[in-house]
Input
Amino acid sequence: MWQLASGIFLGWSLGANDAANIFGTAVASRMIRFLTAVIVCAVFVLLGALLQGQAGIATYRALSGVSINSAFLVALCSALTVTFMTYLKLPVSTSQAVVGSLVCMGLTQGRFNGEILGKVVICWVGTPVGGMIFAIIIYFLIGKFMNRLNLNLFQHDAYLRWGLMIGGAYGAYALGANNVANVTGVFAGPEMLTPFEACLIGGLSIGLGVCTYSKQVMITMGRKIVKLDAYTAFIVILAGAITVHIFAGIGVPVSTSQASVGGILGVGLVKGVRTIKMKKLYQILYAWIGTPAISFVLTFLFYFLFTKSGLMTGL
Amino acid sequence: MALFWKKQADVRKMIDKYLETVDLCMQLFNQSMMRFLNTGCTQEFTREVEETHKLESIADDLRRKIQMTLYGKALLPDSRGDLLTLLEFYDKIPGAAEDVLFLTKVLCLDFHEDMIEDLQKLVGVNVEAYRMVRESMNSLFENPSETLYQTRGVDAKESESDRLERSLIERIFKSDMDTGEKMLFKELVQLIGKISDRAENAADRIGIVAIKRQI
Output
Protein backbone atom coordinates (compact mmCIF):
# COMPACT_ATOMS: atom_id res chain seq x y z
CA MET A 1 0.00 0.00 0.00
CA TRP A 2 2.88 2.42 -0.72
CA GLN A 3 0.44 4.21 -3.00
CA LEU A 4 -1.35 5.48 0.09
CA ALA A 5 1.62 7.81 0.68
CA SER A 6 0.26 10.25 -1.92
CA GLY A 7 -3.09 10.27 -0.07
CA ILE A 8 -1.36 10.94 3.23
CA PHE A 9 0.63 13.72 1.56
CA LEU A 10 -2.61 15.21 0.21
CA GLY A 11 -4.20 14.95 3.68
CA TRP A 12 -1.19 16.58 5.28
CA SER A 13 -1.27 19.53 2.86
CA LEU A 14 -5.06 19.82 3.25
CA GLY A 15 -4.73 19.98 7.04
CA ALA A 16 -1.92 22.52 6.83
CA ASN A 17 -3.98 24.75 4.55
CA ASP A 18 -7.55 24.37 5.72
CA ALA A 19 -6.94 24.79 9.46
CA ALA A 20 -6.41 28.46 8.58
CA ASN A 21 -10.07 28.78 7.55
CA ILE A 22 -11.11 27.67 11.00
CA PHE A 23 -8.63 29.11 13.49
CA GLY A 24 -6.71 31.60 11.32
CA THR A 25 -8.40 34.73 12.66
CA ALA A 26 -8.27 33.65 16.29
CA VAL A 27 -4.62 32.57 16.18
CA ALA A 28 -3.26 35.43 14.06
CA SER A 29 -4.87 38.02 16.31
CA ARG A 30 -3.84 36.06 19.41
CA MET A 31 -7.39 35.44 20.55
CA ILE A 32 -6.50 31.76 20.93
CA ARG A 33 -3.03 30.28 21.38
CA PHE A 34 -1.63 28.31 18.45
CA LEU A 35 -1.06 25.20 20.59
CA THR A 36 -4.65 25.24 21.88
CA ALA A 37 -5.97 25.79 18.35
CA VAL A 38 -4.03 22.91 16.78
CA ILE A 39 -4.95 20.46 19.54
CA VAL A 40 -8.66 21.32 19.31
CA CYS A 41 -8.50 21.33 15.52
CA ALA A 42 -6.66 17.99 15.18
CA VAL A 43 -8.92 16.22 17.70
CA PHE A 44 -12.15 17.45 16.10
CA VAL A 45 -10.93 16.81 12.55
CA LEU A 46 -10.31 13.18 13.52
CA LEU A 47 -13.68 12.94 15.30
CA GLY A 48 -15.49 14.36 12.26
CA ALA A 49 -13.67 12.00 9.92
CA LEU A 50 -14.47 8.93 12.02
CA LEU A 51 -18.07 9.78 12.87
CA GLN A 52 -19.33 11.33 9.64
CA GLY A 53 -16.69 10.91 6.97
CA GLN A 54 -18.08 7.81 5.32
CA ALA A 55 -20.79 9.51 3.22
CA GLY A 56 -18.18 11.45 1.21
CA ILE A 57 -16.13 8.31 0.71
CA ALA A 58 -19.22 6.56 -0.70
CA THR A 59 -19.68 9.45 -3.18
CA TYR A 60 -16.11 9.15 -4.44
CA ARG A 61 -16.49 5.41 -4.85
CA ALA A 62 -19.68 5.99 -6.86
CA LEU A 63 -18.10 8.75 -8.96
CA SER A 64 -15.44 6.45 -10.30
CA GLY A 65 -14.30 3.14 -8.85
CA VAL A 66 -10.54 3.17 -9.33
CA SER A 67 -7.68 0.75 -8.70
CA ILE A 68 -4.99 1.34 -6.08
CA ASN A 69 -2.52 2.67 -8.69
CA SER A 70 -5.18 4.95 -10.13
CA ALA A 71 -5.95 6.14 -6.62
CA PHE A 72 -2.26 6.96 -6.20
CA LEU A 73 -2.32 8.95 -9.45
CA VAL A 74 -5.50 10.81 -8.43
CA ALA A 75 -4.04 11.80 -5.04
CA LEU A 76 -0.70 12.77 -6.58
CA CYS A 77 -2.21 14.93 -9.33
CA SER A 78 -4.61 16.55 -6.85
CA ALA A 79 -1.74 17.34 -4.48
CA LEU A 80 0.29 18.82 -7.35
CA THR A 81 -2.68 20.89 -8.51
CA VAL A 82 -3.27 22.21 -5.00
CA THR A 83 0.42 23.06 -4.66
CA PHE A 84 0.42 24.80 -8.07
CA MET A 85 -2.72 26.81 -7.25
CA THR A 86 -1.26 27.75 -3.87
CA TYR A 87 1.89 28.92 -5.65
CA LEU A 88 -0.31 31.14 -7.84
CA LYS A 89 -1.95 32.42 -4.61
CA LEU A 90 -5.40 31.42 -5.88
CA PRO A 91 -8.06 30.07 -3.53
CA VAL A 92 -7.60 26.33 -3.35
CA SER A 93 -10.23 23.63 -3.20
CA THR A 94 -8.81 20.18 -2.62
CA SER A 95 -12.14 18.54 -3.39
CA GLN A 96 -12.32 20.20 -6.80
CA ALA A 97 -8.82 18.99 -7.60
CA VAL A 98 -9.70 15.44 -6.55
CA VAL A 99 -12.97 15.46 -8.49
CA GLY A 100 -11.23 16.84 -11.63
CA SER A 101 -8.69 14.03 -11.41
CA LEU A 102 -11.36 11.38 -10.69
CA VAL A 103 -13.46 12.48 -13.66
CA CYS A 104 -10.39 12.15 -15.91
CA MET A 105 -9.67 8.66 -14.57
CA GLY A 106 -13.34 7.71 -14.97
CA LEU A 107 -13.43 8.94 -18.58
CA THR A 108 -10.18 7.27 -19.62
CA GLN A 109 -11.30 4.02 -18.06
CA GLY A 110 -14.93 4.28 -19.25
CA ARG A 111 -16.36 4.24 -15.74
CA PHE A 112 -17.56 7.83 -15.51
CA ASN A 113 -20.75 8.59 -13.53
CA GLY A 114 -22.23 11.86 -14.85
CA GLU A 115 -25.18 11.91 -12.46
CA ILE A 116 -22.95 11.98 -9.40
CA LEU A 117 -20.75 14.65 -11.01
CA GLY A 118 -23.85 16.83 -11.51
CA LYS A 119 -24.67 16.51 -7.81
CA VAL A 120 -21.08 17.43 -6.88
CA VAL A 121 -20.99 20.51 -9.14
CA ILE A 122 -24.30 21.79 -7.78
CA CYS A 123 -22.86 21.45 -4.27
CA TRP A 124 -19.76 23.42 -5.31
CA VAL A 125 -21.96 26.34 -6.33
CA GLY A 126 -23.97 25.85 -3.16
CA THR A 127 -20.93 26.14 -0.88
CA PRO A 128 -20.21 29.90 -1.04
CA VAL A 129 -23.92 30.63 -1.50
CA GLY A 130 -24.70 28.51 1.59
CA GLY A 131 -21.91 30.20 3.54
CA MET A 132 -23.33 33.59 2.60
CA ILE A 133 -26.94 32.74 3.50
CA PHE A 134 -26.01 31.16 6.83
CA ALA A 135 -23.78 34.12 7.68
CA ILE A 136 -26.67 36.54 7.11
CA ILE A 137 -29.15 34.46 9.14
CA ILE A 138 -26.92 33.74 12.12
CA TYR A 139 -25.53 37.29 12.15
CA PHE A 140 -28.99 38.58 12.98
CA LEU A 141 -30.11 35.68 15.18
CA ILE A 142 -27.04 35.57 17.42
CA GLY A 143 -26.78 39.37 17.36
CA LYS A 144 -30.34 39.73 18.63
CA PHE A 145 -29.70 37.14 21.32
CA MET A 146 -26.50 38.85 22.47
CA ASN A 147 -28.14 42.30 22.53
CA ARG A 148 -30.92 40.90 24.73
CA LEU A 149 -28.36 39.54 27.18
CA ASN A 150 -27.10 43.13 27.75
CA LEU A 151 -23.53 41.90 28.10
CA ASN A 152 -20.83 44.12 29.52
CA LEU A 153 -17.42 44.44 27.87
CA PHE A 154 -15.93 41.50 29.78
CA GLN A 155 -18.92 39.19 29.30
CA HIS A 156 -19.11 40.14 25.61
CA ASP A 157 -15.43 39.30 25.31
CA ALA A 158 -15.83 35.97 27.12
CA TYR A 159 -18.86 34.94 25.02
CA LEU A 160 -16.98 35.69 21.81
CA ARG A 161 -13.90 33.79 22.94
CA TRP A 162 -16.00 30.75 23.73
CA GLY A 163 -17.85 31.27 20.45
CA LEU A 164 -14.60 31.30 18.49
CA MET A 165 -13.39 28.18 20.32
CA ILE A 166 -16.66 26.24 19.94
CA GLY A 167 -17.19 27.49 16.36
CA GLY A 168 -13.61 26.49 15.57
CA ALA A 169 -14.07 23.01 17.07
CA TYR A 170 -17.30 22.62 15.07
CA GLY A 171 -15.52 23.86 11.94
CA ALA A 172 -12.74 21.31 12.50
CA TYR A 173 -15.33 18.55 12.97
CA ALA A 174 -17.08 19.57 9.72
CA LEU A 175 -13.71 19.75 7.93
CA GLY A 176 -12.86 16.20 9.02
CA ALA A 177 -16.33 14.89 8.17
CA ASN A 178 -16.42 16.56 4.78
CA ASN A 179 -12.84 16.53 3.53
CA VAL A 180 -11.56 13.14 4.66
CA ALA A 181 -13.02 11.72 1.44
CA ASN A 182 -10.68 13.98 -0.56
CA VAL A 183 -7.72 12.39 1.12
CA THR A 184 -8.41 8.68 1.26
CA GLY A 185 -11.80 8.36 -0.46
CA VAL A 186 -10.20 7.02 -3.62
CA PHE A 187 -8.31 4.38 -1.63
CA ALA A 188 -11.46 2.89 -0.12
CA GLY A 189 -12.86 -0.18 -1.78
CA PRO A 190 -12.52 -3.93 -2.18
CA GLU A 191 -8.96 -5.14 -1.55
CA MET A 192 -7.99 -1.63 -0.50
CA LEU A 193 -9.05 0.25 2.65
CA THR A 194 -12.33 -0.25 4.50
CA PRO A 195 -14.33 3.00 4.88
CA PHE A 196 -13.36 3.11 8.59
CA GLU A 197 -9.67 2.66 7.80
CA ALA A 198 -9.92 5.32 5.09
CA CYS A 199 -11.52 7.73 7.59
CA LEU A 200 -8.95 6.96 10.28
CA ILE A 201 -5.90 7.36 8.04
CA GLY A 202 -7.40 10.42 6.32
CA GLY A 203 -8.33 12.02 9.64
CA LEU A 204 -4.89 11.39 11.10
CA SER A 205 -3.07 12.78 8.05
CA ILE A 206 -5.20 15.95 8.09
CA GLY A 207 -4.57 16.24 11.83
CA LEU A 208 -0.84 15.80 11.21
CA GLY A 209 -0.90 18.64 8.67
CA VAL A 210 -2.75 20.83 11.20
CA CYS A 211 -0.20 20.09 13.95
CA THR A 212 3.00 20.38 11.94
CA TYR A 213 2.66 22.95 9.22
CA SER A 214 -0.42 25.14 9.69
CA LYS A 215 0.98 28.04 11.71
CA GLN A 216 2.24 30.24 8.87
CA VAL A 217 -0.85 29.62 6.75
CA MET A 218 -3.06 30.44 9.75
CA ILE A 219 -1.20 33.69 10.33
CA THR A 220 -1.31 34.66 6.65
CA MET A 221 -5.01 33.82 6.29
CA GLY A 222 -5.87 35.33 9.68
CA ARG A 223 -4.24 38.63 8.85
CA LYS A 224 -6.16 38.78 5.61
CA ILE A 225 -9.50 38.54 7.41
CA VAL A 226 -8.49 39.92 10.78
CA LYS A 227 -10.04 43.25 9.74
CA LEU A 228 -13.27 41.53 10.69
CA ASP A 229 -14.08 42.12 14.34
CA ALA A 230 -14.34 39.16 16.71
CA TYR A 231 -18.11 38.86 16.27
CA THR A 232 -18.07 38.81 12.47
CA ALA A 233 -15.07 36.43 12.50
CA PHE A 234 -17.13 34.11 14.72
CA ILE A 235 -20.10 34.37 12.32
CA VAL A 236 -17.89 33.58 9.30
CA ILE A 237 -16.40 30.52 11.04
CA LEU A 238 -19.79 29.26 12.19
CA ALA A 239 -21.51 29.85 8.83
CA GLY A 240 -18.66 28.03 7.05
CA ALA A 241 -18.83 25.14 9.53
CA ILE A 242 -22.62 24.74 9.17
CA THR A 243 -22.37 24.80 5.35
CA VAL A 244 -19.51 22.28 5.20
CA HIS A 245 -21.22 20.06 7.78
CA ILE A 246 -24.45 19.97 5.74
CA PHE A 247 -22.49 18.91 2.67
CA ALA A 248 -20.74 16.26 4.76
CA GLY A 249 -24.21 14.85 5.54
CA ILE A 250 -25.11 14.90 1.84
CA GLY A 251 -21.80 13.20 1.15
CA VAL A 252 -20.21 15.78 -1.13
CA PRO A 253 -16.74 17.05 -0.23
CA VAL A 254 -16.66 20.84 -0.67
CA SER A 255 -14.18 23.64 -0.08
CA THR A 256 -13.93 25.15 3.40
CA SER A 257 -12.15 28.17 1.87
CA GLN A 258 -15.11 28.86 -0.40
CA ALA A 259 -17.57 28.42 2.47
CA SER A 260 -15.53 31.01 4.41
CA VAL A 261 -15.45 33.42 1.47
CA GLY A 262 -19.23 33.04 1.17
CA GLY A 263 -19.51 33.84 4.90
CA ILE A 264 -17.34 36.95 4.51
CA LEU A 265 -19.51 38.14 1.61
CA GLY A 266 -22.65 37.53 3.71
CA VAL A 267 -21.29 39.60 6.59
CA GLY A 268 -20.24 42.28 4.09
CA LEU A 269 -23.80 42.47 2.76
CA VAL A 270 -25.27 42.69 6.28
CA LYS A 271 -22.91 45.43 7.37
CA GLY A 272 -23.59 47.40 4.21
CA VAL A 273 -20.03 47.23 2.95
CA ARG A 274 -20.15 48.75 -0.51
CA THR A 275 -16.74 47.47 -1.44
CA ILE A 276 -17.41 43.78 -1.93
CA LYS A 277 -14.28 42.96 -3.88
CA MET A 278 -15.13 41.88 -7.41
CA LYS A 279 -11.55 40.65 -7.71
CA LYS A 280 -12.25 38.14 -4.96
CA LEU A 281 -15.38 36.94 -6.76
CA TYR A 282 -13.45 36.47 -10.01
CA GLN A 283 -10.81 34.53 -8.11
CA ILE A 284 -13.45 32.12 -6.82
CA LEU A 285 -14.77 31.74 -10.36
CA TYR A 286 -11.28 31.03 -11.72
CA ALA A 287 -10.72 28.51 -8.93
CA TRP A 288 -14.04 26.80 -9.64
CA ILE A 289 -13.08 26.26 -13.26
CA GLY A 290 -9.30 26.22 -12.97
CA THR A 291 -8.74 23.75 -10.15
CA PRO A 292 -10.65 20.76 -11.57
CA ALA A 293 -9.47 21.63 -15.09
CA ILE A 294 -5.77 21.67 -14.16
CA SER A 295 -6.17 18.50 -12.13
CA PHE A 296 -7.98 16.87 -15.07
CA VAL A 297 -5.24 17.80 -17.56
CA LEU A 298 -2.45 16.78 -15.16
CA THR A 299 -4.05 13.39 -14.55
CA PHE A 300 -4.50 12.90 -18.29
CA LEU A 301 -0.82 13.67 -18.94
CA PHE A 302 0.45 11.46 -16.09
CA TYR A 303 -1.90 8.68 -17.13
CA PHE A 304 -0.48 8.53 -20.63
CA LEU A 305 3.09 9.03 -19.39
CA PHE A 306 2.79 6.12 -16.97
CA THR A 307 0.87 3.78 -19.26
CA LYS A 308 3.00 4.43 -22.40
CA SER A 309 6.30 4.22 -20.54
CA GLY A 310 5.19 1.17 -18.59
CA LEU A 311 6.18 2.84 -15.31
CA MET A 312 2.92 1.84 -13.70
CA THR A 313 0.54 -0.93 -14.57
CA GLY A 314 -3.04 -1.59 -13.50
CA LEU A 315 -4.17 1.98 -13.92
CA MET B 1 -7.15 27.83 28.25
CA ALA B 2 -8.12 28.63 31.82
CA LEU B 3 -5.27 31.12 31.72
CA PHE B 4 -7.09 33.67 29.59
CA TRP B 5 -10.20 33.58 31.82
CA LYS B 6 -7.96 34.21 34.81
CA LYS B 7 -6.25 37.09 33.02
CA GLN B 8 -9.66 38.57 32.24
CA ALA B 9 -10.69 38.37 35.91
CA ASP B 10 -7.35 39.91 36.93
CA VAL B 11 -7.88 42.83 34.54
CA ARG B 12 -11.37 43.41 35.93
CA LYS B 13 -10.05 43.49 39.51
CA MET B 14 -7.26 45.86 38.57
CA ILE B 15 -9.67 48.19 36.77
CA ASP B 16 -11.94 48.27 39.83
CA LYS B 17 -8.96 49.12 42.01
CA TYR B 18 -7.83 51.80 39.56
CA LEU B 19 -11.29 53.38 39.49
CA GLU B 20 -11.49 53.39 43.29
CA THR B 21 -8.10 55.10 43.49
CA VAL B 22 -9.21 57.77 41.01
CA ASP B 23 -12.39 58.21 43.10
CA LEU B 24 -10.28 58.88 46.18
CA CYS B 25 -8.07 61.24 44.23
CA MET B 26 -11.05 63.26 42.98
CA GLN B 27 -12.66 63.32 46.45
CA LEU B 28 -9.47 64.70 47.89
CA PHE B 29 -9.25 67.21 45.05
CA ASN B 30 -12.73 68.47 45.86
CA GLN B 31 -11.99 68.59 49.57
CA SER B 32 -8.72 70.45 49.18
CA MET B 33 -10.07 72.97 46.66
CA MET B 34 -12.99 73.75 48.96
CA ARG B 35 -10.55 74.12 51.83
CA PHE B 36 -8.40 76.47 49.76
CA LEU B 37 -11.38 78.59 48.73
CA ASN B 38 -12.56 78.84 52.36
CA THR B 39 -9.32 79.15 54.28
CA GLY B 40 -6.62 79.89 51.71
CA CYS B 41 -3.21 78.31 51.27
CA THR B 42 -2.96 76.55 54.64
CA GLN B 43 -0.63 73.75 55.73
CA GLU B 44 -3.57 71.34 55.69
CA PHE B 45 -4.27 72.30 52.07
CA THR B 46 -0.62 71.66 51.12
CA ARG B 47 -0.77 68.25 52.80
CA GLU B 48 -3.92 67.36 50.86
CA VAL B 49 -2.29 68.47 47.60
CA GLU B 50 0.61 66.11 48.32
CA GLU B 51 -1.80 63.28 49.11
CA THR B 52 -3.73 63.88 45.88
CA HIS B 53 -0.45 63.74 43.97
CA LYS B 54 0.39 60.42 45.63
CA LEU B 55 -3.03 58.98 44.75
CA GLU B 56 -2.68 60.16 41.16
CA SER B 57 0.71 58.40 40.97
CA ILE B 58 -0.79 55.19 42.39
CA ALA B 59 -3.57 55.38 39.80
CA ASP B 60 -0.95 55.88 37.07
CA ASP B 61 0.97 52.80 38.25
CA LEU B 62 -2.22 50.75 38.28
CA ARG B 63 -3.08 51.88 34.78
CA ARG B 64 0.37 50.83 33.56
CA LYS B 65 -0.08 47.45 35.22
CA ILE B 66 -3.44 47.04 33.47
CA GLN B 67 -1.79 48.00 30.17
CA MET B 68 0.93 45.39 30.63
CA THR B 69 -1.64 42.69 31.48
CA LEU B 70 -3.69 43.66 28.43
CA TYR B 71 -0.62 43.56 26.19
CA GLY B 72 -0.07 40.08 27.67
CA LYS B 73 -3.07 39.00 25.55
CA ALA B 74 -5.84 39.18 28.13
CA LEU B 75 -9.09 39.97 26.23
CA LEU B 76 -9.74 39.95 22.49
CA PRO B 77 -7.81 42.52 20.41
CA ASP B 78 -10.94 44.66 19.93
CA SER B 79 -11.75 44.79 23.64
CA ARG B 80 -8.07 45.24 24.47
CA GLY B 81 -7.75 48.26 22.17
CA ASP B 82 -11.01 49.80 23.39
CA LEU B 83 -10.09 49.39 27.03
CA LEU B 84 -6.58 50.81 26.57
CA THR B 85 -7.88 53.90 24.77
CA LEU B 86 -10.66 54.34 27.30
CA LEU B 87 -8.27 54.19 30.27
CA GLU B 88 -5.94 56.65 28.55
CA PHE B 89 -8.81 59.14 28.25
CA TYR B 90 -10.08 58.44 31.76
CA ASP B 91 -6.64 58.92 33.28
CA LYS B 92 -6.53 62.49 31.97
CA ILE B 93 -9.24 63.50 34.46
CA PRO B 94 -7.21 63.01 37.69
CA GLY B 95 -4.27 64.41 35.75
CA ALA B 96 -6.19 67.65 35.17
CA ALA B 97 -7.25 67.76 38.83
CA GLU B 98 -3.66 67.37 39.92
CA ASP B 99 -2.60 70.24 37.60
CA VAL B 100 -5.25 72.49 39.19
CA LEU B 101 -4.02 71.72 42.70
CA PHE B 102 -0.39 72.20 41.74
CA LEU B 103 -1.06 75.63 40.19
CA THR B 104 -3.25 76.64 43.13
CA LYS B 105 -0.53 75.66 45.59
CA VAL B 106 2.22 77.41 43.63
CA LEU B 107 0.28 80.64 43.03
CA CYS B 108 -1.59 80.75 46.35
CA LEU B 109 -3.88 83.35 44.79
CA ASP B 110 -6.14 85.52 46.87
CA PHE B 111 -9.59 85.51 45.24
CA HIS B 112 -12.06 88.33 45.58
CA GLU B 113 -14.79 87.47 48.07
CA ASP B 114 -17.57 87.81 45.46
CA MET B 115 -15.90 85.26 43.20
CA ILE B 116 -15.46 82.54 45.80
CA GLU B 117 -19.01 81.25 45.50
CA ASP B 118 -18.77 80.95 41.71
CA LEU B 119 -15.41 79.23 41.98
CA GLN B 120 -16.88 76.75 44.46
CA LYS B 121 -19.68 76.19 41.99
CA LEU B 122 -17.18 75.67 39.14
CA VAL B 123 -15.20 73.12 41.15
CA GLY B 124 -18.46 71.42 42.17
CA VAL B 125 -19.73 71.18 38.59
CA ASN B 126 -16.42 69.73 37.40
CA VAL B 127 -16.34 67.18 40.20
CA GLU B 128 -19.95 66.33 39.34
CA ALA B 129 -18.92 65.80 35.67
CA TYR B 130 -16.32 63.35 36.95
CA ARG B 131 -18.90 61.59 39.14
CA MET B 132 -21.12 61.16 36.09
CA VAL B 133 -18.36 59.77 33.94
CA ARG B 134 -17.61 57.35 36.77
CA GLU B 135 -21.26 56.25 36.74
CA SER B 136 -21.04 55.79 32.97
CA MET B 137 -17.99 53.61 33.52
CA ASN B 138 -19.89 51.56 36.12
CA SER B 139 -22.76 51.24 33.71
CA LEU B 140 -20.43 50.05 30.93
CA PHE B 141 -19.19 47.27 33.19
CA GLU B 142 -22.52 46.44 34.85
CA ASN B 143 -25.49 47.52 32.74
CA PRO B 144 -24.37 48.53 29.22
CA SER B 145 -27.85 49.35 27.92
CA GLU B 146 -27.91 52.38 30.30
CA THR B 147 -24.45 53.63 29.33
CA LEU B 148 -25.41 56.04 26.55
CA TYR B 149 -28.08 57.64 28.75
CA GLN B 150 -25.48 58.12 31.50
CA THR B 151 -22.91 59.74 29.20
CA ARG B 152 -25.39 62.46 28.15
CA GLY B 153 -25.28 63.81 31.72
CA VAL B 154 -21.54 64.45 31.40
CA ASP B 155 -22.13 66.55 28.29
CA ALA B 156 -24.66 68.70 30.17
CA LYS B 157 -22.22 69.24 33.05
CA GLU B 158 -19.45 70.22 30.63
CA SER B 159 -21.70 72.88 29.09
CA GLU B 160 -22.58 74.19 32.56
CA SER B 161 -18.88 74.34 33.42
CA ASP B 162 -18.19 76.27 30.19
CA ARG B 163 -20.84 78.87 31.07
CA LEU B 164 -19.48 79.33 34.60
CA GLU B 165 -15.93 79.49 33.30
CA ARG B 166 -16.76 82.25 30.79
CA SER B 167 -18.71 84.28 33.30
CA LEU B 168 -15.85 84.03 35.80
CA ILE B 169 -13.26 85.06 33.24
CA GLU B 170 -15.39 88.07 32.27
CA ARG B 171 -15.60 89.11 35.93
CA ILE B 172 -11.86 88.63 36.39
CA PHE B 173 -11.11 90.96 33.49
CA LYS B 174 -13.66 93.54 34.68
CA SER B 175 -12.11 93.57 38.18
CA ASP B 176 -9.44 96.00 39.38
CA MET B 177 -6.67 93.35 39.50
CA ASP B 178 -3.48 94.04 37.61
CA THR B 179 -3.04 92.34 34.22
CA GLY B 180 -0.56 89.75 35.46
CA GLU B 181 -2.89 88.70 38.25
CA LYS B 182 -5.81 88.57 35.81
CA MET B 183 -3.87 86.22 33.52
CA LEU B 184 -3.03 83.90 36.43
CA PHE B 185 -6.64 83.80 37.65
CA LYS B 186 -7.84 83.13 34.12
CA GLU B 187 -5.40 80.26 33.74
CA LEU B 188 -6.54 78.65 36.96
CA VAL B 189 -10.22 78.95 36.02
CA GLN B 190 -9.54 77.42 32.61
CA LEU B 191 -7.54 74.62 34.22
CA ILE B 192 -10.48 73.75 36.48
CA GLY B 193 -12.74 73.69 33.41
CA LYS B 194 -10.42 71.18 31.77
CA ILE B 195 -11.61 68.52 34.23
CA SER B 196 -15.09 68.48 32.69
CA ASP B 197 -13.62 68.74 29.16
CA ARG B 198 -11.64 65.59 29.82
CA ALA B 199 -14.60 63.94 31.50
CA GLU B 200 -16.60 64.64 28.34
CA ASN B 201 -13.86 63.09 26.16
CA ALA B 202 -13.81 60.00 28.37
CA ALA B 203 -17.62 59.80 28.26
CA ASP B 204 -17.50 59.93 24.45
CA ARG B 205 -15.08 57.00 24.45
CA ILE B 206 -17.31 55.09 26.86
CA GLY B 207 -20.26 55.68 24.50
CA ILE B 208 -18.25 54.40 21.54
CA VAL B 209 -17.22 51.25 23.45
CA ALA B 210 -20.87 50.61 24.37
CA ILE B 211 -22.17 51.19 20.82
CA LYS B 212 -19.51 48.92 19.33
CA ARG B 213 -20.85 46.06 21.42
CA GLN B 214 -24.38 46.41 20.12
CA ILE B 215 -24.91 44.13 17.15
User: Anything to note?
Assistant: The CA atoms of residues 80 and 295 of chain A lie 8 Å apart. Residues 4-309 of chain A form one domain. The mean pLDDT of chain A is 86. The two ends of chain A are 15 Å apart (CA to CA).
